[in-house]
Amino acid sequence: MNYSSTARAGDIAQLVGLTHKHFIFSLKEGGDLQTHRGVLKHDDLIGTPWGSQVFSHMGAPFFLLQPSIADILNDLPRTTQILYPKDIGYILITMGIAPGQRVIEAGTGSGSMTIAMATAIGAEGRIISYEQKQDTQNLARKNLERVGLASHVDFKLRDIKEGFDETDADAFFLDVQNPFDYIPQVRASIKTGGFFGTILPTFNQVEKTLHALKKNNFAFIEVCEIILRHYKSDPARIRPTDRMVAHTGYLMFARKIEPSTDPRGKELTNEVSGDG
């Protein structure tokens, strides 16, 4: 995505009205955006500084902005449940997703996590995304193309019980219903010290995944959930909003290690595979 000071053809733009009604779309020469408050010509927006107020042919005001990743994900066409920005941000930081890295994910879904990771790894990095359903993968590919990030991703269609083509990946995010069944395959695909992450809806799945991680020599295991609460931004009546984004799933993280023993002959792996 372009981060220049003015809008350019090919950029993803966001128009926000005074009531916060918004539209996210790709700028194209000769294109137009039709809204219930009038039409805006793309050619009139191209070359305009970001943050400017613009007007439809009916005189309705909008602000021309670059959408954040959270804006894009909230507006993403989907057929599956997507991860929330509150979870995605913590996942990226905890798993050390950074420019130039090679990251595998399994369970592409609608591509929300793929978009976030592809943004984080930059042009020099690579995302390898495995999905079992063709129609789901097609939608994810379109969503990545929409935001100009498809070139950062290798899409692969496969039942992941067959394993993965890659080895020595920096990190692996697994978003499937039964991650505990695929931990050996994940271990074979990432480098020693590499990061593992997953999200699960129930305690039963967490328990099974904990056992699988410890059995396959993963350590520094963390289980948590992220709860987000917004507040009204009116200075005269600051208070929590009526709704909050509470539990969405249990996040699990771990690191791949090599088993070893201390001079006393005691196995060290289990000593670092639990809390702390």
Question: Can you walk me through this structure?
Answer:
The chain has seven helices and 13 strands. By secondary structure, it is of the alpha/beta class. The chain folds into two domains: 12-67, Vcp-like ATPase, Chain A, domain 2 (Roll); 71-272, Rossmann fold (3-Layer(aba) Sandwich). The protein has a seven-stranded mixed β-sheet with strand order 9-8-7-10-11-13-12, sandwiched between helices. A four-stranded antiparallel β-sheet has the order 2-1-6-5, with no helix packed on it. It has a two-stranded antiparallel sheet with strand order 3-4. A hairpin with a 5-residue loop joins strand 5 (53-55) and strand 6 (61-65). The chain is globular and about 70 Å long.
* pLDDT averaged residue by residue: 90
Subunit organisation of the chains: single chain
Instruction: Note the beta-strand portion.
Output: 25-35%
The beta-strand count equals 13
User: What's the CATH topology name of the largest domain?
Assistant: Rossmann fold
For the biggest sheet, the summary is: 7 strands, mixed
The low-confidence parts are none
Indicate the structural class.
alpha/beta
Q: How many DSSP helices?
A: 7
Helix content: 10-25%
Provide the gyration radius in Å: 22 Å
Cα-to-Cα separation, first versus last residue:
38 Å
CATH superfamily of the largest domain, by name, is Vaccinia Virus protein VP39
Query: What is the second-level CATH architecture of the largest domain?
Result: 3-Layer(aba) Sandwich
Q: Going across the major beta sheet, what is the strand order?
A: 9-8-7-10-11-13-12
List the secondary-structure elements in sequence, H or E: EEEEHEEHHEHEHEEHEHEE
Number of domains: 2
Could you name the CATH class of the largest domain?
Alpha Beta
Shape: globular
